[in-house]
Amino acid sequence: MSFVLMMLGGMALDLALGWPDRLYARIGHPVTWLGRAITLCEHRLNRGAWGARLLGGSTTTVLIAALAVLPAWALQSALPDTWAGTLVGAVLAWPMIAVRSMHDHVAAVAKALTAEDMPESRRTVSMIVGRNPSQLDAPAIARAATESLAENTSDGIVAPLFWGALLGLPGIYGYKAINTMDSMIGHRSVRYDAFGKTAARLDDMVNLVPARLTGLVFACVSRRPLTAITVMWRDAGAHRSPNAGWPEGAMAAALNVRLSGPRVYDGQIAEEPWLNEGAPDPDGQDLHRALSLYRRAMALCGLALAAMALL
Fold it and tell me: What single string gives the DSSP state of each residue in 146-203?
């Protein structure tokens, strides 16, 4: 069975359909199912001293990963090695690939920024970032949306496709379980510092290759490929994340804007370094250009999968 072809089919289904609202209202989404399981474990196991919380978080990480991987492995094992089996595998991979929803969320921010509608800009950007939107001006909103587009291209699309192409359904579902745990409990806060440590470190590991691949894809489809690679290589290591700086740095250079920089989290100023320092802040038009870059990157990913399937 071709795992690559399964991922290509899942990507095509997501491009065509997204995750329909009617389907979400009826059954939810596999990521929300995982989220409920993570919340249940966190409420029961995130207590006691630091060591007990670390153990509880590690136990949660193993349990949630198994909850995602084992059913996916069982389903994949039951599929026939035929075109029909590959098609069913593509349908099962489809919910784990977020090409369309990522584009639509960022496009809503770009539309509001271009119209200079600040209330709508803050509302739409709050759907994709964790920062308090009431503290963000137009350049900060544009930066936040561009950074989210760059980072989530890796987390939401390239990494799932990468692990799915390697390992099939257990790969893509296992990756999404790890990434969902990181987004929910992998925070540097009093509540999650110990409990989410294992999930956060595991997420860093599984994103090492996909994040760098994503940066390279952005560079390849940009109009400034050598500049994008140079800036990405130079600035990525200064980012607070071991992985996010690669796609963000490549996108910053491709658009000739600056990203990251100081920002406010929970009322505290985080003095983050700039990516592509010296370039201007992005605006609504730059966000539209970022979406164009994203579409070209997705086309390249699809072509790469098709080429691998043929080989």
Answer: HHHHHHHHIIIIIHHHHHHHHHSHHHHHHHHHHHHHHHHH--SSTTTTTTTHHHHHHH
Are the C-beta atoms of residues 183 and 217 closer than 8 Å to each other? no
Q: How would you classify residue 276: left for phi > 0, otherwise alpha for psi between -120 and 50, otherwise beta?
A: left
Tokens 């999404």 sit on residue: 176
Concatenating the DSSP letter of every residue in 86-124 gives HHHHHHHHGGG--HHHHHHHHHHHHHHHHTT-HHHHHHH
- H or E element in which residue 235 lies: helix 225-235
The whole domain housing 35 covers 3-310
Q: What's the total number of domains in the chain?
A: 1
Structure token pair of residue 54: 């670390």
Q: How is the chain split among helix, strand and coil, in percent rounded to 5? A: 75, 5, 25
- Cα separation, 247 vs 227, whole angstroms: 14
Q: pLDDT over 90 for what percent of the chain? A: 90
This prediction has a pTM of 0.94
Average pLDDT over residues 131-141: 86
Contact status, residue 88 vs residue 280, Cβ threshold 8 Å: no
Position 133 confidence tier, pLDDT thresholds 50, 70, 90: confident
Residue 144 reports pLDDT greater than 80: yes
Please name the residues in contact with 161: beta carbons below 8 A apart, sequence gap of 6 or more: 7, 11, 97, 172, 301, 305
Q: How would you label 170-199 residue by residue, b for 16+ Cβ within 10 Å and e otherwise?
A: bbbbbbbbbbbbbbbbbbeeeebbbbbbbb
Mean pLDDT of the chain: 94
Alpha carbons 301 and 305: distance in angstroms, whole number: 6
